[in-house]
Structure formats: structure tokens, C-alpha cells
Specification:
It is a single chain. By secondary structure, the protein is mainly alpha-helical. It has ten helices and no strands. It is globular and about 50 Å long. It starts with a helix and ends with a helix.
Length: 306
């Protein structure tokens, strides 16, 4: 069995590369939209499709991991999201990008889904902190994307570089991951216990909470830089560095607090903060929409009078 430091790196690096891939589109929306002659709204559907792909990938690759081992599941997911990111740089139209990004989500979410049980099995003390640190890598990947996309000559090259780096840096670490103790084969994988009387409510409410959390964070993180650019936020470059750092720190802090105060209390407190933040986001969005509409109406009225 690999040493603990190697296992930590084996967990962190592939997870980081998965975030690196799925958020690589974040800073490329304007360039892709301009090249393909489509709107940002049409392009943002790729994020939704990555969600759908992620839901399917988590189940399909998760079953493969349970049946034949975690290493096989992780290797499959890494190859999928890395190659799909490379292919995104070779697409000719929006529909091909949709397909590529569906596969990116399929692979990324399955990698993440396999990683969490590895943490649960290999960390008894500091499990919450480790889980929080791992989730904070979403924002670290986002910051790396900002650097790479700013240095790449154009968006196609950025996708190819990001996908190739992910494949190169992630795949070797699969070998240090502790393997599943028992491999049952695909025909004997059974999840009926999740829907038994003892676990049904946990399955339902856990799924709802996770879905709501991802519906808020992933689209927000993916689309926020583009909309902040449209809104002409002052000192945007600074905010695009500060906000991911805050996000990464917050995830680690949340994991630590769950170990100190318990998961239930921490979850309730964070849910309240999330609800407040969501309300403020809605209010801010409405104010911007109203201001934009008034400016547009004024310009149109000026044209009429002119």
C-alpha cells in the first residue's frame, strides 16, 4: 500500500485536474461565442449539459468502480474528461461543443464521486477537513484556468493544453489509490439498500441538498466571470483572484467546522448563509437587469427623438 503522503497527492491531483477541466470554459465564453457566432446564453447550455452528463456519469462509472475497482473507475473518468476537453478544442460547431462538454461533466462528476468514498475509507481523523480541502480545489482549478487561458493564444489551444495536462498529471496517480477491498462484478452491484426504510429519507434529502448546492455553485462559478465582465466590474482581475481564494478557504473551513461542531449543525449554518447569498444575488441581478433595461429604453427613445 502507498504511503499516506502519496495517497493524499493521489486524491488531490486528479480532483484538481477535474476542476481544471470542467471550469476551463469559464474564461472562454466570449471568445467561443464570437468564433461560433452564437450568444452567451446559447453557449451556457453547455454548463447545463455537463450537469446532466455528471448525473449519468456518477451512476455509470460509480457502478463500474464498485464492480471492478476504484482504480478502473478513476482511470475511466480521467480519460473521459481529459480527452473530451481536448476534443472541445477541435469542435466545428456548437452542437459538437455540447457533446464534448456533456462528456466532460460525465467524467468529472464520476471522478469526484469515487474520490469521496476514498476519503471516507482512509481518513478517520480530520475527514471533514480533508473533504473540505478537496472541494476547495474547485476554486484552485479555476485560478489555474485563469492563468492558462490568459497565456494561450486562443480558446482552441487552451482546451487542448488543459486536457493534455489533465491526462498527463492525473492518470499516473491512479496507481497509488487504495483499491476496493472486494470486487463483486457488474451483475452483483445492488443499490437497493439506499431505498430501504432505514436510508430512504437520507437518500432523498441528501440528493436534494447536493443538487441544490451544485445548481447554485457550478453555474455561478462557470458564468460569473463572463457576466462580471459584461457588467464592467471595476478591478475585475483582482476580484477574479480574490473570490476563488475565499471560496477555497471557505470549503476547507467548512470541513474543519464539521469535524468540530458536527455535520448537522455546520450544514444548517451554511445553508442559512447560502439562502441569504442567493437572495442577495437575485436582488443584485434584478437591479442590474432594471438598470440595463432603462438604459436601453433611454437610448431607443433618444433615437426616436433624434
Amino acid at each position: 500500500m502507498a504511503s499516506r503522503p502519496l495517497i493524499i497527492l493521489g486524491v488531490l491531483i486528479p480532483f484538481l485536474m477535474s476542476a481544471y477541466c470542467v471550469f476551463s470554459i469559464t474564461y472562454l465564453f466570449p471568445e467561443i461565442a464570437s468564433t461560433m457566432h452564437v450568444s452567451i446564453t446559447a453557449l451556457s447550455l453547455a454548463v447545463t449539459l455537463s450537469f446532466i452528463g455528471g448525473a449519468l456519469g456518477g451512476v455509470v462509472i460509480g457502478m463500474i468502480a464498485d464492480a471492478y475497482g476504484r482504480r478502473i473507475g478513476l482511470a475511466a473518468s480521467i480519460v473521459l474528461f481529459s480527452i473530451a476537453t481536448i476534443l472541445a478544442g477541435l469542435v466545428n460547431n456548437l452542437w459538437e461543443l455540447y457533446v464534448a462538454w456533456f462528456i466532460v461533466g460525465f467524467g468529472v462528476n464520476s471522478e469526484n464521486g469515487i474520490t469521496y468514498p476514498i476519503i471516507a475509507d482512509n481518513w478517520t481523523r480530520g475527514r471533514g477537513l480533508m473533504g473540505g480541502v478537496v472541494q476547495g480545489l474547485y476554486f484552485v482549478g479555476l485560478m489555474i484556468d485563469a492563468v492558462v487561458t490568459s497565456l494561450a493564444a486562443q480558446w482552441r489551444l487552451a482546451f487542448i493544453i488543459i486536457g493534455a495536462m489533465s491526462l498527463l498529471f492525473s492518470l499516473p496517480w491512479v496507481l497509488v489509490i487504495p483499491e476496493t477491498v472486494k470486487r463483486v462484478g457488474i451483475t452483483r452491484v445492488n443499490y437497493s439498500e439506499l431505498f430501504s426504510r432505514d436510508y430512504l429519507l437520507i437518500t432523498i434529502f441528501g440528493t436534494i441538498l447536493v443538487a441544490l448546492a451544485f445548481l447554485l455553485t457550478i453555474p455561478l462559478v462557470s458564468l460569473a466571470p463572463t457576466y462580471m465582465r459584461i457588467m464592467r466590474i471595476e478591478q475585475l482581475s483582482m476580484w477574479l483572484i480574490i473570490l476563488p481564494i475565499i471560496g477555497a478557504f471557505a470549503y476547507g473551513l467548512a470541513g474543519y467546522l464539521s469535524g468540530v461542531f458536527g455535520r448537522a449543525l455546520t450544514l444548517i449554518a451554511l445553508s442559512v448563509i447560502a439562502i441569504i447569498a442567493s437572495i442577495l444575488l437575485i436582488i443584485t441581478s434584478l437591479q442590474h437587469a432594471i438598470s440595463y433595461s432603462m438604459a436601453l429604453a433611454s437610448s431607443q427613445w433618444g433615437l426616436v427623438l433624434g
